From TrEMBL:
It holds the Pfam family NADAR. Its EC number is 1.1.1.193. Signal peptide: none annotated. Gene3D superfamilies: Cytidine Deaminase, domain 2, Dihydrofolate Reductase, subunit A, YbiA-like. This is 5-amino-6-(5-phosphoribosylamino)uracil reductase. It comes from Dillenia turbinata.
């Protein structure tokens, strides 16, 4: 069993006719296939929305798939472009099925352009984009070019579409919940005995569930941005919280501890493979905070440590999904704070008893059964000897009330942000100014040490690989090549940071003194060769540019403005240079 959505074992073929019944059934089937493809991107890199595209073409009286694709990661080729490339000439006059409206970086139209250049005549979309500044943009762009666009539930009404729409929502539930609740999509996972115990009275808990269930938990971790536990779990279980699924995304480990009463020796303090963040109350055990910092563990202090504030903090850091693997006390606090959206409960066919044996959820203050929280969209699956029961505590948010009407012509104002107009924040590529990010999908060409120009998939690829440029060591050259060929900017960043931390002897000795110049040259190339990026940068004249990274205090602005914001500074420097060049050119023209 896996968390993937249902797949089709063979290409979907249907005889062409004018019967709406068959037509709607076919549209629904292909949208489900697109959702299944989109789900394949989960667990490889994070965070990013999940996109899938199916191209279907009619020939000889039937309709068949001619191309498919899914977005591997933010910054890689869009699903639509991959599908068109796969289909080749068969994309002409085809119908494209998308689980979600394309959401390119603002100012970029790669996905839409791919469909137009491929000659696609019709596009069927499962759901509109959840982000307000992207919602409706691709639909309007396609319709303005004469492409027929149908959105399920809006332009197409049928009983067949209910399941298809639900699958499209599920595959991007993390993004939908994040938009609606302004906290990351949070899943509470636990394993318990048939009599509702998560450990014996002694506290011993290994192992309640079966090996098959534990393997499934590894996969669930690999699909999350972070895994969170409480201090009691660290003290009693000493977990590693690794994904162990053979590659792909490794979630950040988060520990919530009010007093920092934690052991000095713990698996979570080993950050050689994946980072750990400890969230604690302000002022707690300063000496232990320094000890954790010396181990490479990040410590974040809160005035009052509670799940709501912690989740709002990680929302600001760009996290989409959090897996809670905590004990009953913290689980109850998280549920009471309204930050838990879904539950995965593994029930083992065991009975252990014990009046004082802990249960998965502590005190919620409920005194009558009528107050119990009822899950919706409940699923039951047998995993080995265990039963997995999953469902939503909070139903999938309905974004329909704020979806633009089909006939609207006005463009949604992308400048509406929670920040002051004089400061422009950017961080993730889906932000209104997300194209300023090093992770945006804009290839650049930069010279190597021999003066030969190489093509880089993104600024982040070039920056991370440059750490190992010119080092006379075969291992350094291997690092350089591996980062250059990384499938996404996130992978390049993860590889570069990990290698720098684990193999400092392979990093060029002058890196700290040249890294700003390396970044500057890459940014100048990027904003010089893409006119729309240059125009976007110049349009910000008079505003302060800040990379809204709350944890990168060198390139970003930090959580409370304590960061150096070197990325924002370099962009403002480039903006000034470009404005100066423009002014000089205009002066020459007037002469």
């Amino acid at each position: 069993m896996s968390f993937s959505l249902p797949t089709f074992s063979s290409p979907i073929i249907c005889e062409t006719n004018n019967n709406h019944y068959n037509s709607h059934a076919l549209d629904a089937a292909y949208i489900k296939r697109a959702a299944d493809l989109a789900d394949k991107s989960a667990g490889f890199t994070s965070p990013h929305p999940n996109y899938g595209c199916v191209l279907a073409s009619s020939a000889a009286g039937n309709v068949r798939v001619v191309g498919e694709g899914f977005l591997y990661a933010q910054g890689t080729k869009p699903a639509e472009l991959l599908a068109v490339e796969t289909a080749g000439e068969f994309s002409k006059h085809a119908t494209a099925y998308l689980n979600m409206e394309p959401g390119d970086c603002p100012g970029d139209h790669i996905a839409v352009s791919a469909l137009l250049k491929g000659g696609v005549e019709r596009v069927v979309i499962g759901i509109r984009h959840p982000l307000s500044h992207l919602r409706g943009n691709a639909i309007r762009a396609l319709r303005s070019e004469g492409v027929q666009v149908h959105v399920l539930g809006e332009d197409l009404q049928s009983k067949f579409f209910q399941e298809a729409i639900k699958l499209c929502q599920l595959v991007n539930a993390h993004l939908i919940y994040r938009v609606a609740s302004r906290v990351p999509f949070s899943v509470l996972k636990y394993a318990m005995t048939l009599d509702g115990k998560i450990a014996a009275s002694s506290g011993h808990a290994a192992w309640i569930s079966s090996k098959q269930s534990r393997q499934l938990v590894f996969e669930l971790r690999g699909r999350s941005d972070a895994v969170i536990v409480g201090g009691n779990t660290v003290r009693k279980d000493n977990p590693k919280l690794t994904a162990r699924h053979g590659g792909g995304h490794l979630p950040t480990r988060i520990v919530m501890s009010q007093t920092l009463n934690l052991p000095e020796v713990a698996n979570l303090w080993d950050v050689s493979e994946v980072s750990t963040i400890v969230a604690t109350q302000r002022g707690a055990r300063k000496s232990f905070q320094r000890y954790l910092a010396s181990k490479g563990v990040e410590v974040v202090e809160f005035d009052i440590l509670n799940p709501r504030d912690v989740m709002e903090y990680f929302y600001d850091r760009g996290y989409l999904s959090i897996l809670w693997e905590c004990g009953g006390t913290l689980a109850a606090s998280a549920i009471s704070s309204g930050v838990i959206h879904k539950v995965y409960a593994f029930v083992a066919p065991k009975v252990i008893g014990g009046k004082n044996a802990p249960s998965p959820v502590g005190e919620l203050g409920m005194v009558e059964m009528s107050q119990a929280l009822e899950l919706v969209d409940v699923c039951y699956e047998q995993i080995g000897p265990d039963m997995l029961i999953s469902g939503f505590i909070q139903p999938i948010p309905d974004l329909a009330p704020i979806i633009p009407s089909v006939n609207e012509t006005s463009v949604i104002d992308p400048s509406v942000t929670p920040y002051e107009a004089s400061i422009i924040f950017f961080y993730k590529t889906w932000d209104p100014y997300g194209a300023f990010s090093n992770f945006s999908p804009h290839p650049i060409q930069m010279p190597d040490e021999n003066g030969d120009y190489l093509t880089w998939s993104s600024v982040e690829h070039y920056y991370q690989a440059s750490k190992f440029l010119g080092v006379e060591d075969p291992s350094a050259k291997e690092c350089f090549e591996n980062i250059k060929s990384a499938k996404s900017p996130e992978e390049a960043a993860r590889m570069g940071r990990k290698l720098q931390r684990q193999c400092p002897h392979l990093v060029r000795p002058d890196w700290d003194s040249v890294k700003v110049d390396v970044m500057y040259k890459a940014l100048k190339c990027k904003f010089s060769i893409y006119p729309h990026l240059n125009s976007m940068l110049l349009s910000t004249a008079g505003s302060v540019l800040v990379e809204a990274s709350p944890h990168d205090l060198f390139w970003g602005g930090g959580r409370e403005g304590e960061g150096l914001n070197y990325l924002g500074r370099l962009l403002m420097q480039l903006r000034s240079e470009f404005l100066g060049e423009s002014s000089t050119e205009n002066s020459c023209l007037r002469m």
